[in-house]
Design goal:
This protein has 164 residues and is α+β, with helices and mostly antiparallel strands. The protein has one domain: Peptide deformylase (Peptide Deformylase, Alpha-Beta Complex). Helix content is 28%, strand content 26%. It has helices spanning 25-40, 124-137, 148-163; strands at 45-47, 57-60, 70-81, 84-88, 98-102, 105-111, 117-123. Strands 1-2-3-6-7 form a five-stranded antiparallel beta sheet. The chain has a two-stranded antiparallel ribbon with strand order 4-5. The two termini are 30 Å apart. The mean pLDDT is 96. Bound molecules: ligand K2U and zinc ion (ZN). Zinc ion binds at residues 90-92, 132, 136.
Length: 164
């Protein structure tokens, strides 16, 4: 089922998502809808916060064929190194792109959609996407990483959009 995506500056995007207690059928249904919503957008990542579901669930697929779905539940970055700068966008901040610096290599621990714990290493775009999505679960948007001046301009633009 397609889910509506919250748009900046919606305050709900600032909610801190709660850890998932049990990967039950409700969570599995939510994950399925998040994948559908992400592929439809289209996007290469989607955090539960963006669809107004405030639990720690992320779906990702950075493959070109869009056939490598990755679900991270209660994700934690346990190691990070290096630095990469990437021109980021966000489904919750349409038509705005800015360069953001993040760690290039990360190690992540999470539960998969069957509730099994796993660890994985990621780098480049996959690492960028995982960090971008975990930020969403902590109420952080990529625009929070840009300069104050650029944030001011973006807020004015968003408010003008809202008044239209
Ligand atoms: O809003 C989101 O969380 C989806 C983001 C995830 C993302 C942002 C920046 C860098 C990597 C991932 C994207 O807007 S999904 C749209 C997209 C599609 C292809 C390439 C980059 C971004
Ligand atoms: Zn985003």
């Amino acid at each position: 089922m397609l889910l509506p995506i919250l748009c900046y500056p919606d305050k709900k995007l600032r909610t801190i998502a709660k850890p998932v207690e049990a990967v039950n059928d409700a969570i599995k249904t939510q994950v399925k809808s998040m994948f559908e919503t992400m592929y439809d957008a289209p996007g290469i990542g989607l955090a539960a916060t963006q669809v107004d579901f405030h639990q720690r669930v992320i779906v990702i697929d950075v493959s070109d064929e869009q056939d490598q779905p990755l679900c991270l539940i209660n994700p934690e970055i346990i190691e990070k190194s290096g630095e990469i700068e990437w021109e980021e966008g966000c489904l919750s901040v349409p038509n705005y792109y800015e360069s953001v610096k993040r760690a290039n290599d990360i190690k992540v621990r999470a539960l998969d959609q069957n509730g099994e714990e796993f660890e994985m290493e990621a780098s480049e775009i996959l690492a960028v996407c995982i960090q971008h999505e975990i930020d969403h679960l902590n109420g952080i948007l990529f625009v929070d990483h840009i300069s104050k001046l650029k944030q001011k301009r973006l807020k004015e633009k968003a408010n003008k959009q809202a008044r239209l």
